[in-house]
Amino acid sequence: MALVSMVELLDQAQKGHYAIGAFNCNNMEIVQAIVAAAEAENAPVIIQASQGAIKYAGIEYITTLTKLAAEKANVPIALHLDHGTSFAQVMQCARNGFSSVMIDGSKHLLEDNIALTNKVIEAVRPLGISVEAELGKIGGTEDDITVSEREALFTEPAEAEYFVQATQVDALAIAIGTAHGQYKGIPKLDFERLTKIRERVSTPLVLHGSSGVPEEALREAISRGICKINIDTNIREAFVLAARHVLEGDSKEIDPRKMLGPAREAATAIIREKIRIFGSTGKA
């Protein structure tokens, strides 16, 4: 089937009290792994491309691979820009067939974030493209974007309400204690803050930096209103570990298929596990 808008998936997830997995891709094998996992679990899924992925693989390759995968798949798939930081980049993705975009204006002052978000919404919503924004700063590193723990600010419930009223954005990424990249310890999420945001905001809420967050914490976040969960680091870990295992077993191996095949299988397995945790199995 053709690519779908992310907002369609999130609306159903919010009504059904489950979350849609949003999985980052960097190459063909990871796109294949995401789709294979979604089909095995009969689950809707979001394939995401970050600025780093677009720079590495090329936007035409990412869109062509994902569109082909969606056309061949029996589950709904959205193609989403993860952490777009400029209007120009958002429009590049819109022109290349993305069905959803994120404009990350969280480093700006509140009113500037609102203005940038509204500029994006005005440009892409008539095209049927959904828009995610971010309020508060999520710590860690996501490709070229780094937020130190000192800078990481949790989302204020009152500001979230004001932001959504001012923009009517389709999805809102909030900061409640997660971080991009690998955790040094066990993350502690501010569930009371999440509940207060949910009480003020009916817009679908997004949890970034979810790799390494314990299963019970993810389930709790979903029960309190999160309906899109981003996973990147866990996929990279599984993918690279499997490829490394092949090389450690035979240092003279030169066939990339012998490395990338097992890596793809490992990525598929971790994505299937996340889909089951999110409660979206059987929701396609």
UniProtKB/TrEMBL annotation:
Cofactor, free-text remark: Binds 2 Zn(2+) ions per subunit. One is catalytic and the other provides a structural contribution.
Cofactor needs: Zn(2+)
Amino acids binding Zn(2+) 2: D104, E134
Taxonomic classification: Bacteria, Bacillati, Bacillota, Clostridia, Eubacteriales
Binding-site list for Zn(2+) 1: H83, H180, H208
Ligand binding (dihydroxyacetone phosphate): G181, G209, S210, S211, N230, I231, D232, T233
UniProt entry keywords in alphabetical sequence: Lyase, Metal-binding, Zinc
BP terms from Gene Ontology: fructose 1,6-bisphosphate metabolic process; glycolytic process
Organism: Desulfosporosinus lacus DSM 15449
Single Gene Ontology MF annotation: fructose-bisphosphate aldolase activity
Name of the molecule in the record: Fructose-bisphosphate aldolase, class II
Entry annotation: catalytic residues: D82 (proton donor)
Keyword Lyase: yes
InterPro entries named among the record's database cross-references: Aldolase_TIM, Class_II_FBP_aldolase, FBA_II, Fruc_bis_ald_class-2
Coiled-coil segments: none
